[in-house]
From TrEMBL:
UniProt-recorded name of the protein: UDP-glucuronate 4-epimerase
Gene that this sequence comes from: LOC115744400
Annotated EC: 5.1.3.6
Similarity remark: Belongs to the NAD(P)-dependent epimerase/dehydratase family.
Keyword Nucleus: no
SUPFAM superfamilies recorded: NAD(P)-binding Rossmann-fold domains
Record's subunit section: Homodimer.
Family annotation (InterPro entries): Epimerase_deHydtase (IPR001509), NAD(P)-bd_dom_sf (IPR036291)
Organism this protein belongs to: Rhodamnia argentea
Cell compartment(s), UniProt: Golgi apparatus, Golgi stack membrane
Keyword Transmembrane helix included in the entry's annotation: yes
Membrane topology: Multi-pass membrane protein
Key words of the record: Carbohydrate metabolism, Golgi apparatus, Isomerase, Membrane, NAD, Transmembrane, Transmembrane helix
First-listed, main subcellular location of the protein, grouped into a coarse class: Golgi
Amino acid sequence: MKQISHLDNIPSTPGKFKMDKSPYNRLRWHSSLAKLTFWSFIFLALIFIFFFRSPSSSTPQALSDPSRRYLQNYSWGGAAWEKRVRSSARIRSRNGMSVLVTGAAGFVGTHVSAALKRRGDGVLGLDNFNDYYDPSLKRARQALLERAGVFIVEADINDEALLKKLFEVVAFTHVMHLAAQAGVRYAMENPSSYVHSNIAGLVNLLEVCKSANPQPAIVWASSSSVYGLNTKVPFSEKDRTDQPASLYAATKKAGEEIAHTYNHIYGLSLTGLRFFTVYGPWGRPDMAYFFFTRDILKGKSISIFEAANHGTVARDFTYIDDIVRGCLAALDTAEKSTGSGGKKKGPAQLRVYNLGNTSPVPVSDLVSILERLLKVKAKRNILRLPRNGDVQYTHANISSAQRELGYKPTTDLQAGLKKFVRWYLRFYADGKKSGV
Ligand SMILES: O=C(O)[C@H]1O[C@H](OP(=O)(O)OP(=O)(O)OC[C@H]2O[C@@H](n3ccc(=O)[nH]c3=O)[C@H](O)[C@@H]2O)[C@H](O)[C@@H](O)[C@@H]1O
C-alpha cells in the first residue's frame, strides 16, 4: 500500500498514462511505470554509450588521436575578446600593415611578432600551444609578447569558424604563417600531426584567406629540408625538390605546391621562405644546438651524427635575427592579392626564397663552440647518421633573397651561439625549468 500511496504523488500525465483511481489499476499502472522507467534508463544508457564512448565522439578521440588533440574547444568571442583582437591588430605607424601571425608563441613567430610590433605594425598572434615541446616555454614567449602589446588568440589553424571570425573583426593586410609541426625526426613518431598542421591546417588557412575581402598577402615558412637528397650545392631555389627525405620535408614541399594552386586559382599573393636550421634565444628545445646545451650542462653524453666513411654532417645554421629581417623584408615586398571579392583580376605574386647563412658548419664544430661557451667538455658519442629523415648537408644559395629582399645575414655561428647560451643560462637559471 505504501507503494500505492507513493504512486499517488506522481502527477497525472495526459493520454496513455492517464491515472485511474482503482487500486488494481493503480498496481498495473505502477508496474507499467516501473517498466517504462527501466526501459527509459536502458535507452538513456545506450545513448550515453553511443555519444560518449563511440569512436566518432570528439572527447575520447581527441585524447587518443594525436592529430586531433589540438582541436580542443578554446573559448573565444564576445565584445571584450573582439576589443583585444582589434587593439592588438591596430596599425600604429604610417604605411604600417596589419598582420595575423600564426604560430606566434613559437620560436620564429615570437621574434617576428615582436619585431613587427616594435616598428608600429598591427600584430595579432594565433597559436594552439600544443605540447610537442614544453608549453611553459611557449607561455613565457606569450608573456613577452603580451608586454609588447601583442595578443595571442589560443586556437588551431584548422578551426575555420575562428579564422573567419578573425577576418570579420580585422581586415588583415598580411598573414605571416609560421604555425607548423616542425622537426625532421619526429615525423616517424607522429606522422599525422604533420598532415594535420602542415597540410590540412595550411589549406584551411588559405581557404579562409581566399574568401576574405580584402584578401591578405601571405608569407609562410617552408624549409631547407625540401631539397632532400639533392646533392648539388649550394641549394638554389631552381634546384630539384622532388626527393624529400622525411615526411616533414614532404609536407613542406606539398605546401609549396598547394601555395601554387591558391595563387593560380584565387589570386592569393604567396611567398614561401625556406629556412635553414634557425637557432637563437627563445629557440626550440627539440633542436640539436638546444638539447646539446642542456645535456652538456647536465654531464649527459650527446650523439653526434656522421655520414658513411666518417663523412661530415653539416648545417647552414642561421641566426634568428637574420631570419626575422628576411621575414619582414618578404612582408614589405609582398604585393597585394588579386582575387578580393571572389574574382581574380590578374596574376598574383608567387615567390620562394632560401633564407640561410651561406656557410655550413659541421655539427662537431657546433659542439666545440658550445663547449667553449659553456666551459664544459661534452661527452661525445659518435653515431652513424640514422635513416630517420636527416640529410647530410645543407647550404643555401641566397642570391635571390639578396637581390629581391635585400637579405644579408650578418651573424656567424660563434656570435649567434654566444647570444643563445647567454639567454639559456639566464632563462633556466632558477633551476626550476628543465629546458625540455
Ligand atoms: O632548416 C630546416 O629545414 C630544418 O632545420 C631543423 O632541422 P635540422 O637541420 O635537422 O636541425 P636539428 O634537428 O637541430 O639538427 C641539426 C644537426 O644536428 C644533427 N644531430 C641531430 C640530433 C642529434 O642527436 N645529433 C646530431 O648530430 C642533425 O643530423 C643535423 O645535422 C628544424 O628542426 C626543422 O624544423 C627545419 O625545417
